[in-house]
Amino acid sequence: MRGAHRDEDDDSRDRPLVALRAATAFAAAGLLLAGLLAPAAVGAGTLLARASANVSSTTAGLLDREPDAASVITDVFGAPMATVYDRYRLPVGPTGVADTMKAAIVAIEDRRFYDHDGIDAQGLTRAAATNAVTGTPFEGQGGSTITMQFVKNQRLYTLADTDEERRTATADTVARKFTEVRLARRVEDQLGKDEILARYLDLVYFGRGAYGVEAAARTWFRTGADALTVPQAALLAGLVRAPSAYDPLDHPAAARARRDQVLDAMTEVGSLTRTQAAAARAAPLGVVSEPIPTPNGCAGARPGTGFFCREVVERLTAAGLDLATGGYTVRTTLDPGATAAARDATRAAVDPEADVADVTAVVAPRPGRRPVLALAANRTYGPDADAGQTVLPLTTAPLRGAGSIYKIFTAAAALERGLVSPGTTLDVPEEYRSELAEGYTVENLGSYPDELTLRQALATSPNTTFVALVDRIGSVPPIVDVARRLGLRTTLAAPGPDGRPLAERVGAEQASFTLGPDPTSPLDLANVAATISSGGRWCPPTLVEAVTDRDAREVTPAIAPCEQAVDPAVARELRTALSEDVEDGTASRAADDAGWDRTMIAKTGTTQRSASAAFLGATDRYAGAVMTFSTDGAEPVCTSPVSTCSEGDLTGGSVPADTWFDLMGPLHRSGADRDDEG
């Protein structure tokens, strides 16, 4: 008892000291508040003066610089197929957020938000006093208004470019608080309350990689911010203060308690009736079992669209658009029907787990434009090689040779010069020594008649005939030139081991160019077919219909204009010369098996040792190319089953042609073409 009495005496003696400390703290808090609001009037001190030095220059950034935002890539119909971001943030602005969410965040974070001018003097005094008495941080003491929190987060996520700037933006110091107060007042002078609230909700972090309320709604509930229910909004509002501590999967009890605290606050301020709040408290947390952001980048694209996505990102990045931060909406030319058919055909032809790639590109030969409808492969685009994925641009980059398809370019050059016509009879020697390339001799594979027309020669592909035709042309550069004009542009611009592009490396006497040993882009080949079938008019293969920024302004990069690659009369002759391959040539077996009965142009190609093979074809609706090749160097490829082997039997008329007809047959039968789109 004596001990207890002694404690009471101690308490009595301490009470004046505690009271004095508290009074001093509140007085100090009052002075601090006055210093924060009007530092010059009360002599706030050198520290605060220094902190205010950059306020004016920072204000413009707060209002003018937008936070980073994810870009969404869609197919031609506007259906999302990929999202690209540094941070998963999808700004939606004032009209994109449900009133439930606005009410919840105001109730729990700043219930006087619509009444103050950016500074809650009552809350700031209380926070300063608590800091003065206990030494606890300002954070969590209720001193920051939503406007001040917007300032803090905007400085952290948008304005800070260095680690030091990020530390300054989050430091628990009087100087930082002072800066936020001054900046908040300026923000309130220039923005309305609804705009400030919307910017804040688009900015803050809600856990699990979700920045901003739209990303949070999608991540936690698979819904939009404009559709959040009361309990969903209350849970998200509760997460803002401590996303990890209130994570509903890791800490469900804490998350529920925090959500209910938000519901109580909403009831206190009149946003909810007690009945509505009780119903919301009875609701389950309702979050998804795996709350992860939308997969990032082309590796997370919709199945079958990864290679297309990669090329879109590469092109737009080269045009100066930063998709990872810019918040763009990119509507592409990708046709989901054509893409599904292409993916199914390549996978049916070659096992995705085989060490052989089967890739295809499909374009539409429309007047004045050349939309790319599909870029697909039997492989999946992605970084996991053990799972059969690859990040190589299989459908667009020049990786392997296309073989005798290059005879098209020799024929075109000869037609331009009037040396031949489709019906011109050409010699077919068993062996031919080039006059142009000294010491270069070629032989044919298989037996041929002594003579063939140009049309028959393109269909059956004797090597000697076309090397001899190179000699008649007199030089290889004219053949290279017509190849470029018809569409072999990425291929010819690709640098070789010495850094020079293929167009420069092909010498005037390199007669072997006509046999197509050089790495070739599948998309280039598809566009060559489209150029020929479009009257000789080349157009750049286009993957993007439109790009809009976050304010819905169109920012689509300009593309090169179409060109008349060859005279229309030459194009007509070339179409005629390429019309027999599916009738009585190297692709006739594949065409017969597919029951093909449409008029088309076609050409097959096979490189030495069957390391790669290709098929090019076009109708009036679609142009496409298929290439099949070893993914492990230049190993020969066998076809039963399709795999690398020691002695290959792959030809352009086998797997590539089968894939092409398997792809194009359903497209033509289903009427899936988009000619009516212009």
From TrEMBL:
Domain Penicillin-binding protein transpeptidase: 362-611
Transmembrane segments: 20-42
Enzyme Commission code: 2.4.-.-
Catalytic activity: Preferential cleavage: (Ac)2-L-Lys-D-Ala-|-D-Ala. Also transpeptidation of peptidyl-alanyl moieties that are N-acyl substituents of D-alanine; [GlcNAc-(1->4)-Mur2Ac(oyl-L-Ala-gamma-D-Glu-L-Lys-D-Ala-D-Ala)](n)-di-trans,octa-cis-undecaprenyl diphosphate + beta-D-GlcNAc-(1->4)-Mur2Ac(oyl-L-Ala-gamma-D-Glu-L-Lys-D-Ala-D-Ala)-di-trans,octa-cis-undecaprenyl diphosphate = [GlcNAc-(1->4)-Mur2Ac(oyl-L-Ala-gamma-D-Glu-L-Lys-D-Ala-D-Ala)](n+1)-di-trans,octa-cis-undecaprenyl diphosphate + di-trans,octa-cis-undecaprenyl diphosphate + H(+)
Domain Glycosyl transferase family: residue ranges: 81-266
InterPro entries reported for this sequence: Beta-lactam/transpept-like, Glyco_trans_51, Glycosyltr_51/Transpeptidase, Lysozyme-like_dom_sf, PBP_transglycosylase, PCN-bd_Tpept
Molecular function (Gene Ontology), one example: glycosyltransferase activity
Keyword vocabulary terms for this entry: Carboxypeptidase, Glycosyltransferase, Hydrolase, Membrane, Multifunctional enzyme, Protease, Transferase, Transmembrane, Transmembrane helix
Superkingdom as given in the UniProt entry: Bacteria
Entry coiled-coil feature ranges: none
Name of the protein: Transglycosylase domain-containing protein
Originating species: Actinomycetospora rhizophila
Organism phylogeny: Bacteria, Bacillati, Actinomycetota, Actinomycetes, Pseudonocardiales
